[in-house]
Structures are given as structure tokens and as C-alpha cells.
Amino acid sequence: MGGSGKFDVRVDNLLVRFTPSPPVDLEEAIERLGGIRNGNVIIKTLDAPRATLIIDSEGRIIVHGTHRIEAARAAAKEMLLRMGRDDSGMVAELGPIVASFDFGEEVPINNLRTNLGSGTTSIDERLGCLRLNDTRHDLELLIWANGRCVALNARHQNMVAMAAVHWKSKFSDKKSLKA
Fold first, then answer.
1. ω before 23 within 30° of 0 (cis)?
2. I need a labelling partner for 158 at 20 to 30 A (CA). Which of 22, 37, 46, 164 fits?
3. CB contact at 8 A, 172 and 10
4. Cα dist. 119→57, 71, 133 in Å?
5. How confident is the model at residue 4 (pLDDT cuts 50, 70, 90)?
6. Which domains, and CATH codes, for the chain?
7. How many angstroms separate the Cα of 37 from the Cα of each of 10, 41, 57?
8. Does pLDDT of 177 surpass 80?
9. Per-residue pLDDT at 102
10. CA-to-CA distance for 167 and 120, rounded, in angstroms?
11. 26-33 and 69-82 helices cross at what angle (nearest 10)?
12. Torsion of CA 12, 15, 21, 23, to 10 degrees
């Protein structure tokens, strides 16, 4: 794959916050949904659609564990329906995503660490990967020697794809990747 090749980026987790009108009452969420209080939030796990819902102290619904915005909206709507409410007027805000892709070849992470320096990278001994702080694309990449990569705190799947192309090109320019 060349420096300008396309990458198959897969969204592994999406975080979405929904603000219903009126906000969800926390005590009602406990009584009607069987939500569990954890500090100043209520947590409810749904099986269909599969998601974890967190109702914050302001009555907003944070959906964790979905791969698509449609699934997150369906989870929030299901919760509201179980409370006898509809989702009209509900506003969505996208949070960070976790996505993954493969560079398509082995990556000598120790060479990258040396070539890119400690200000940008660090070795994560626990995970056995290189952590790369990508300020250009505002995300963090976890890169394994087998070429597998996970992007953390990304804002969009396309941004992850742009980061993949950028870093593949940069690694090739620095002769850090095996030919």
C-alpha cells in the first residue's frame, strides 16, 4: 500500500450524548428503568439495541458501546419509550470514537520511536505497542508491530483515515517501515 493508499477504518466504539427535552429525571430512571446509581449518574445497560446508557446529573443521555449514530439514537429512543416519552426535540452531540485499521505491513515500532522522538511517541509496555500523539489530527494512535492500529479520541472515521495516510507516508519518508 503506497503513502496515498486507502485504509479500511472500522469504528469500534462511538460515544454520543443526547439532550432530551425535558431532561430525564434521575429518580424516575431508577424507578422505571431499573437504572443503577453510580455517584451522580444513573447507568442502564440495554440488550436491544446493545448499549450502555449513562444519564448524567443534567438529565442527558450518554450512549456508549455502539458503532453507528443510528444505533446510539435507537438506544436513547428505547430508553425514553420505556419511560413513556418520545424522542421529539432530542439533540445529539457526537463524542470521541475508537476506530481501528491496519497499515498492511509490519511496523518496526522501536525504529519509529527513535525516528519520531519521545515528544511524540512512547512505548506502552503493558499493551506492547507504540503510542503516538497525533496533534495534527487531534487523536492518539496505538501501533503494534504487526501493523494493527487503534485510534483513540478521534472525532470522525474520516479523520482516522487521514491520519493513517499521513503517518504511513511519514513512516515511509523516514524509512521507518520495512519495504
1. no
2. 46
3. no
4. 38, 38, 8
5. very low
6. 21-89 (3.30.310.10), 97-173 (3.30.310.10)
7. 33, 6, 11
8. no
9. 95
10. 12
11. 80
12. 120
pLDDT tens by residue, 45-61: 988 778 999 999 999 99
User: How large a percentage of the chain has pLDDT more than 70?
Assistant: 94
Instruction: Please give the Cα distance from 93 to 134 (Å, whole number).
Output: 23
